[in-house]
Amino acid sequence: MVVRNSEIADIFYELADFLEIEAANQFRVRAYRTAARNIESLPQNVAEMVDKGEDLTGLPGIGKDLAAKLAEIVKSGRLPQLEDIKQRLPAGLIDLLRIGEVGPRRVKMLHQNLGITGIEDLEKAAREQQVRKLPGFGPKAEEKILEQINRVRGMSPGEKRLRLPAVEQIAQSLVEVLVEISGVKRIDLAGSYRRKQETVGDLDILVACENPSEVMDRFVSYGGAIQVLERGATRSSIMLRSGFHVDVRVVPDESFGAALLYFTGSKAHSIALRKMGMKSNLKINEYGVFSGGDRVAGATEQEVYAQVGLPYIEPELRENRGEIEAALRDGLPHLITLEDIRGDLHIHTSATEGRATLKEMAVAARERGYQYIAVTDHSRRLAMTRGLNEDRLSEQIKEIDELNQTFSDFLVLKGIEVDVYEDGSLDLSPQILEKLDLVVCSIHHKFDLPGEKQTQRIIRALRHPYFIVLAHPTGRIIGEREPYEVDMEAIIRAARENGCALELNSQTDRLDLADIYCKMAKEMGVKIAISSDAHSLSELDLMRYGITQARRGWLEKPDVLNARSLEEIMEIFRQNRPASSPARTSGP
Ligand code: DGT
Ligand code: CA
Ligand code: CA
Ligand code: ZN
Question: 506-531: b or e for each residue (b if 16 or more CB lie within 10 Å)?
Fold first, then answer.
């Protein structure tokens, strides 16, 4: 069986986590994470490259040492180094990583400061309020840890939540198999995947087919399965190599909509619907809507919603966070779509960490139908990425002016992703920032300042006259790094007072701002920039994950900065500048 890129990436991610817990060199930890991320987003299959004897050191972030490790994984399916480190570390420490609130950095701290070696220890320490005393934790984190411990206890061993692109790959290959079966009329992906939750616990697939037994046979003999967990007449479950589970259910046509609604969830949304049904003496379940003994609806989701007097509700909204109340008063949001996006306000070029040149990025963005992109390379403090100093930024500005001469229907905006220091000051002088159209600010060090200090740091930066967008506002890396301990409401308020926007970073390990904060920002009148933070041409397409996260956050076209036309956005930037300083790039 061919090893998938996502499986290789998982091994590297895991190794990076364990190395970090062991307090290994940060550079090595980062090298494995970067490699994992690159491998995940590669168009070609690494295992096939190894089989063909191709040179892996040509891949981004892969040197000789990592290339040898890749070959080892492809050939044996294992990495001895990972197995060794698993032997060395107390087994319980590894379990701690399954707690959403706890990444490797926190595991290390819990172990070193409180002697915690497993979930039992952690629970005890949290109940005794010892955890909140550690730097970067606090009472809220402690509470969430206790919640998460309960969740983890209900999980089967080896269960691991995957991010959307990995699940997408899995779904695609399974659908390819299922669609070949004769009599299959319809295949739908349900569950948290359809709701586009940032991580997915297991994949739920619904199939409409006249031959349920053939669907079951084909599914349980799927090549990627290492174990059949259940084989029934109309439902089966398998476990993939990564430990990820997939459920398939065959459903009759007349109840397909009811089943899709039920298995899309969320559970809280379905329960709320069921309660509404009960008030009108309707029974709603996965088979349909029943009045007395009669089925009155079930073939489509619309039909089921209509029975309780509701319009169709988009899957991303189905979390019982007010969507039913909004639907009842005809106040559902018109959710943003990818087609609404006119440009990208955060991308990197080969001047710093990016892999493509300024021109290549611009051409690729234009090909995607955008009117503009803002080039926002790193500033000098990030020496590791060859961050730009004043001189190099001036050169880039000149280069952009020249490039813009070649376009008549597209504009490259001059920007920077400037680092914010611990005291809230910016890494470049106002004299150079003044020459830019767009200043994006972000934090790349001192992630674990106490909440009050971190909040003040960001608010001070937001007050800077040239600040426009706060990039990846909470700094989280899903499953790896916890969000900063900040007061988001205070930050959003400060953004509003200073005419700033917050970014929704589309990198799938960030998806930062999270959905609930997108909604909070919208309600408080702060705009969101949905940005790809692309480091390569193909990463421009990450935008679609930002869009689904934005939809989960109820965002509509007017809430999104880069859904504005070039003229509108230039006007917004102009208004944001001190009166003495005109915008720098003029339209095509
Ligand atoms: P996941 O897999 O943890 O990312 O999240 P989901 O939402 O995909 O949850 P899952 O796979 O356990 O179940 C799929 C859907 O099935 C869920 O969203 C709603 C529905 N469901 C599961 N269990 C129940 C239940 O006890 N009651 C109701 N009303 N619905 C349920
Ligand atoms: Ca699921
Ligand atoms: Ca499931
Ligand atoms: Zn960036």
Answer: bbbbbbbbbbebbbbbbeeebbbbbb
Contact call for residues 195 and 266 (beta carbons, < 8 A): yes
Read off the pLDDT band of 417 (50, 70, 90). very high
Share of the chain residues as helix, strand and coil, in percent rounded to the nearest 5 = 45, 15, 35
Q: Is the pLDDT of residue 13 over 90?
A: no
> Residue 512's beta-bridge partner residues?
505
Q: Is the pLDDT of residue 426 over 90?
A: yes
Ligand 1 atom closest to Cα of 247?
A: 11
Whether 224 is in the pocket of ligand 1, judged by its Cβ within 6 Å, is no
The C-alpha atoms of residue 50 and residue 48 are separated, in whole angstroms, by 5
Residue nearest to atom 16 of ligand 1 (CA): 263
Q: How confident is the model at residue 102 (pLDDT cuts 50, 70, 90)?
A: confident
Report which protein residue has its CA nearest ligand 1's atom 25. 267
pLDDT above 70 coverage of the chain, percent: 96
CB of 266 sitting under 6 A from ligand 1: yes
Contact 438, 400 (CB under 8 A): no
Q: How confident is the model at residue 298 (pLDDT cuts 50, 70, 90)?
A: very high
Amino acid 6: pLDDT:
81
Tell me which residue has its CA closest to atom 24 in ligand 1: 267
Q: What is the pLDDT of residue 552?
A: 98
Q: What is the pLDDT, as a whole number, of residue 177?
A: 92
- To which residue do tokens 């499953």 refer? 479
Split at pLDDT 50, 70, 90, the class of 1 is low
Ordered structural domains, the chain, with CATH: 5-153 (1.10.150.110), 162-250 (3.30.460.10), 255-328 (3.30.210.10), 338-576 (3.20.20.140)
DSSP strands (E only) in 268-400: 282-285, 288-291, 294-297, 343-347, 372-375
Does 267 sit in the ligand 1 pocket, CB within 6 Å?
Answer: yes
CB atoms within 10 A of CB 412: 26
Ligand 2 centre distance from Cα of residue 146 (Å): 23
Ligand 1 atom with the shortest distance to the CA of 197: 4
Rounded average pLDDT over 445-454: 91
Structural element, H or E, at residue 501: strand 501-505
Mean pLDDT of the chain: 91
Q: How far is the CA of 260 from the centre of ligand 1 (A)?
A: 11
Taking CA atoms only, the protein residue closest to ligand 1 atom 20 is: 263
Closest-approaching ligand to the CA atom of 201: 1
Q: What angle do CA 327, 331, 336 make, to 5 degrees?
A: 100
Q: Give the distance (Å) from ligand 3 centre to CA of residue 314.
A: 20
